[in-house]
Specification:
Catalyzes the reversible conversion of ribose-5-phosphate to ribulose 5-phosphate. The chain is α/β, with parallel strands linked by helices. It has two domains: 166 residues, 3-Layer(aba) Sandwich (Rossmann fold), CATH 3.40.50.1360; 76 residues, ACT domain (Alpha-Beta Plaits, 2-Layer Sandwich), CATH 3.30.70.260. It has six helices and 14 strands.
């Protein structure tokens, strides 16, 4: 069922105090987290135009955007869309909705990608990949002219990576313990644990690319994220990590008081 978001107060501003500019204070609404995700997703789909090549994100928030794109195609309100899915799961969902699909080989430049995130910092840096799709997401979103991130307000953090929640790193399965230990030792100074992600029946979780994921649980602010990113990527055995630095062009945040849009400057 489509959720109406029109009554929401929508701001487009630089700071989290943007709600202050309303003439009368917005009233909190009792919405579930999933309803907030859907509101952010529907708002992002307003950026979609007929004829676009679209990066289709993965996760419980992006799922709403893909549903909405399918719905608008079915209604004839969008035409000639080509979707580039960021995971096998999204590929299945898009196919079930009749969204025409392609890949980066055929479409190396993407008009717009829409995806969720696990954490967003004030500079629009992200943590992604707690659903396991970071590599394809980074390839596709990195090839996008515009990358719109959709989140509920619980995803906003002061700095990424210091929450002790997972910072995922995709690694090759070969001697994964060796690579996990190198990662742990690299980030040791920030209070870091490194755990192999487990999937069904306690076996290693395997990504769409046949790799494993080590979840780094970092306790402290890592400071220069670019330097940390470079150091992680220099480790043999590492395929990619879930910090998406300076990639998002816009973040749409749905909260109890309304929707806020933050743009990269
Ligand atoms: O691998 C998963 C993706 O990066 C997701 O976009 C991210 O984990 C956010 O997922 P959700 O919208 O379910 O919170």
């Amino acid at each position: 069922m489509a959720l109406a978001y029109d009554p929401l107060f929508i701001t487009s501003d630089k700071s989290l105090s943007a709600f202050d500019v309303a003439s009368s204070p917005p009233q909190p609404m009792n919405l579930t987290q999933d309803e907030l995700k859907r509101i952010a997703a529907y708002k992002a789909v307003e950026f979609v135009e007929s004829g676009m090549v679209l990066g289709l994100g993965t996760g419980s928030t992006a799922k709403h955007a893909v549903d909405r794109i399918g719905e608008l195609l079915r209604q004839g309100k969008l035409e000639n869309i080509v979707g580039i899915p960021t995971s096998k799961k999204t590929q299945e969902q898009a196919l079930s909705l009749g969204i025409p699909l392609s890949d980066l080989d055929a479409h190396p430049v993407i008009d717009l990608s829409i995806d969720g995130a696990d954490e967003v910092d004030p500079y629009l840096n992200l943590v992604k990949g707690r659903g396991g799709s970071l590599l394809r997401e980074k390839m596709i979103e990195g090839a996008s002219k515009k990358f719109v991130v959709i989140v509920d307000e619980s995803k906003m953090v002061k700095h990424i990576g210091g929450s002790k929640l997972a910072l995922p790193v995709e690694i090759v399965p070969f001697c994964w313990k060796f690579t996990a230990e190198k990662l742990r030792s690299l980030l040791e100074g920030y209070g870091c644990e490194a755990n192999l992600r487990l999937g069904e029946k306690g076996k290693a979780f395997v990504t769409d690319n046949g790799n494993y994921i080590v979840d780094m649980h970092v306790e402290e602010d890592m400071g220069d994220l670019g330097a940390v990113s470079d150091a992680i990527l220099r480790l043999p055995g590492v395929v990619e990590h879930g910090m998406f630095l300076d990639m998002a062009s816009t973040v749409i945040i749905a909260g109890e008081l309304g929707v806020k849009i933050k743009n990269k400057h």
